[in-house]
Structures are given as structure tokens and as C-alpha cells.
């Protein structure tokens, strides 16, 4: 079932929101010698977008909830490089965002709530514009199967960091970070 993001934002219920970026995000950005082009899928209130824009990245950020994009724009108002913040559905990414050769794709909690085939086609569309060596950083609730089935084969898994609770039913999705590199 899709998460009711419009309702959650209208009630100011955004428990995923942090004003600081995650360590995996920091380490992924540090892999690049210089800033490039990045896309932030489901940018929320723009914490990751702002971090990149402050470091000279050319960022395209997309979210379907107006309250999210308005907050992201406000968060980034003083960054040296202004990100392009787009209101829209990532399922229409091909029509909505510039077809840049993104070096970094951020999916911090957005795509996992879509069907596997939809995740696969959004990532597939963006990767068709990217060069080999591009990185994809993902966070979401995944099983091992759903994680691998949702990413096109051209992406090689660099590492995965999944929560390991003491009690877990087989097939339960777990909070999972993963980093992928385009072949
Ligand atoms: C869990 S929040 C994470 C927000 C942000 N990435 C962060 O780390 O704070 C997921 C975000 O993805 C957005 N989202 C979910 N499905 C989307 C879709 N189909 N198109 C665009 N945005 C979407 C939601 O509105 C929400 O802001």
C-alpha cells in the first residue's frame, strides 16, 4: 500500500526527517574527487539536497508533495548553487527531470514504497543517462530479494548494511542502506 505522504506532511508527521545527513551519505559523497551532477529522489525537506548543493553539486531534487518541495527550497535558499527542485511523481521522471549524466543518484527512503517493477523502471530510466562509475545510494525497507529485484542488472552492489534485529520473521523487510555502482 502506498504511504500516505500528502496526509503525513499536512499533519506535520515527518518522523523520517533529520536536519543532518546519515554517515553512509557523507561517506558516499566523499568518494567523489569533485562535485558533479546528482539527483535526489523523494527529496523530502531537502537535507541531502542541501548538503550536496553546499558543496558545489548541481542537484536535481524531486518530490510529489508540495509541502516537501517548499521546505526543500527554503532549506536551500542560501546554498552557493541553487538546486533544481521539482514537484512531481518519480514515476514520471523521464518527463520531469533533465536527462543529465548523473554521477550520484540518491534514493533515501523514496522508491521502496513503490512496486518492484516501478522501482526498477525509475532506476533504469535514470541510469540510461548515466555513465559507468555512477553511484546509487539507497535506503528503504527491503528483503534481500526485493533489494536485488528492484535494481537493474547494470548496477553492481558495492555494499549493503541491513538492520539485524534479534527477532525477525522470514521475509520481513528490514531497514537497509545499499550502495551500487553502474557498470
Ligand atoms: C521517507 S521520506 C524521505 C525524505 C527524504 N529523502 C529524507 O531522507 O528525509 C520519502 C519521500 O519520498 C516522497 N515520495 C514518495 N513517493 C514518491 C513519488 N512517487 N514521487 C515523488 N516523491 C515521492 C515523499 O513525499 C517523501 O517526501
Structure overview:
The chain has a single domain (3-182), classed as Vaccinia Virus protein VP39 (Rossmann fold). Helix content is 30%, strand content 25%. The protein is built from seven helices and seven strands. The protein has helices spanning 5-10, 23-30, 47-54, 66-75, 93-96, 116-127, 144-149; strands at 37-41, 58-63, 84-87, 104-108, 135-142, 155-162, 174-182. The chain has a seven-stranded mixed β-sheet with strand order 3-2-1-4-5-7-6. The structure holds S-adenosylmethionine. S-adenosylmethionine (SAM) is lined by residues 5, 16-17, 42-44, 47, 62-65, 68, 89-91, 108-110, 113.
The first-level CATH class name: Alpha Beta
Relevant CATH superfamily: Vaccinia Virus protein VP39
Sheet with the most strands?
Answer: 7 strands, mixed
SS class:
alpha/beta
Shape: globular
| Quaternary structure annotation | single chain
How far the N terminus sits from the C terminus, by CA atoms, comes to 33 Å
Predict the CATH topology. Answer: Rossmann fold
Q: Count of DSSP helices?
A: 7
What is the number of strand segments? Answer: 7
Sheet with most strands: strand arrangement = 3-2-1-4-5-7-6
Percentage of residues assigned to helices: 25-40%
Total count of domains:
1
* N-to-C order of helices and strands: HHEHEHEHEHEHEE
> Which small-molecule ligands are present, each listed once?
S-adenosylmethionine
Beta-strand residue fraction? 15-25%
CATH architecture: 3-Layer(aba) Sandwich
Offer a concise description of the structure.
With 183 residues, the chain is of the alpha/beta class. It has seven helices and seven strands; from the N terminus they run ααβαβαβαβαβαββ. A seven-stranded mixed sheet has the order 3-2-1-4-5-7-6.
